[in-house]
Prior knowledge:
The complex is a heterodimer.
Chain A: E1 3-14, E2 17-23, E3 26-28, E4 32-36, H1 43-50, E5 58-63, E6 66-67, H2 72-78, E7 79-82, H3 94-105, H4 110-118, H5 134-146, E8 152-156, H6 164-180, E9 184-188, H7 192-198, E10 201-206, E11 209-215, H8 216-226, H9 233-247
Parallel strand pairs in A: 4-9, 4-10, 7-8, 8-9
Antiparallel strand pairs in A: 1-2, 1-3, 1-5, 5-6, 10-11
Helix pairs in contact in A: 3-4, 4-5
Chain B: H1 3-9, H2 15-36, H3 38-42, H4 48-81, H5 84-89, H6 95-128, H7 135-163, H8 167-183, H9 203-208, H10 212-240
Helix pairs in contact in B: 2-4, 2-6, 4-6, 4-7, 4-8, 6-7, 7-8, 7-10
Bound molecules: adenosine-5'-triphosphate and magnesium ion (MG).
Adenosine-5'-triphosphate (ATP) binds near residues 17 and 40 of chain A.
Amino acid sequence: MTNMIETHHLTKQYSDFTAVSDLNLHIKKGRIHGFLGPNGAGKSTTMKMFLGLTKPTDGSFEINGKMFPKDRQQILREIGSLIESPAFYGNLTGEENLEIIRKILNLPKRFVKDALETVGLYEYRNRLAKKYSLGMKQRLGLAGALIGKPPILILDEPTNGLDPAGIHEIRTLIRSLPQTYDCTILVSSHLLSEMELLADDVSILNHGRLLFEGTLSELKQYAVHAGYPVENLEETFLSIIEEDNLKRGGKR
Amino acid sequence: MNVSLEMKKLKRTGFYPAFLFGAVLAAAIPILQTAFRAEYFTNQLLPGLEILLGANWQMLAMLNVFFLVIGACMMYHIEFADRAIQKMESLPLSAGRVFAAKCFILLGALLFVILIEAVSIAFCTIHWFSAGQNFVQELFQIFGFEWILMVPAVILMMMVASLCRNMWISLGIGVICIFTVTILPHENLILSFFPFSLPFQSLPDAHDSLHVSSYLAASCTETALFGILEALIIRVRRNCA
Ligand SMILES: Nc1ncnc2c1ncn2[C@@H]1O[C@H](COP(=O)(O)OP(=O)(O)OP(=O)(O)O)[C@@H](O)[C@H]1O
Ligand SMILES: [Mg+2]
């Protein structure tokens, strides 16, 4: 199986602080890859580097065989993204916001309606985006990521701010995407029970360092082998992080 | 460069009404001024256009620069307000082109204001004085000159607006620049090359002091300079992000 995204010793340093350290990540084509880690682990920073929103201090990465920064424009053409809290024009309606993205990506007109329907915003398309509820803004951001049916989706906490029904709905949607059309998804979340239902592969990040990368069942084997609890992903995750923090000398 | 896309983004921001209102306000000044002081004006032994420009130019230039500052602030405010700029940066889109398109729109809006001002001056000349030979041509030259001299300030102000996430800071910088210009001594040629001073120079005055080509050259040089500077800023920002 080929890798859609590959990083080589990817590192991001902020003046005296390393947000991402020597990361070697392999995101396989056609899979949903869950990106786990506590607050400040470096998940968003890594995703931002993939989009060229922030520049790596060291190391490199390849996306769909294209190198950064040489092929940045080409890479961006293939990625649909939602990073941290949604970003939009508050003075425009949901529909107009997507219309802007559609024009930039040079897509057919009907894609806007499709995207609005996919995320369940069609009914509210004529409302100003700044008047949307948090969950609706999140859905708008998701629509902006999905609109061109891009081969790669980078979703940073896509269910942030959604109600339980919304979380279920969006999870089902994301889960269905690789079947609807050929795509690879990198998704971060704190909701580990969600991740367990959503992801094929996971990687666990703590303090910028990669602690584990592999399929969910490999994670289970690894946990059994290392003596971590395996009842559910949450337990496993918490003990892996705790163990790592202890190893780091109790430093948080 | 996608001008129509950038124009769509300005929907409901008050940008277009502001410029419409501004143009009407600017046009009203010469008309009201001349209407109230008609006798004083018409008794002077100068050509009508010269009298009108002498009485109104500083005020019109001040308004033009003020609209320029407000326009630039509005255009980047929508990008920062709900972090739309982050979405834009993650799309295959060149920041330089977006910047150029925005400058283009602001220059277009200012051209509209200037045209209305020219119409107002034309009305005053014809109504209270008499239009001389080549009147229309002269008028076009005067206001065209004004427009060209505004280009550096447009680019500079857009640069400031694109760098400040908080609109109030860029607005403050713009207002300080305008005030600085009004304090600066008017006779000093070098100081009048300051981007915010240029729009205050009127073509007839520049003619008298034989500085027309210096002003045009200054405008072109500053335009090129700020253009290069903006390209550098975009590159540096990407590399330091
Ligand atoms: N511009 C910046 N300057 C300095 N430090 C930064 C900057 N951006 C992020 N950081 C730091 O980098 C670390 C990683 O941040 P990041 O946003 O990637 O975490 P995260 O894994 O996405 O966390 P969360 O789960 O809370 O979203 C944090 O400690 C953060 O403070
Ligand atoms: Mg984050």
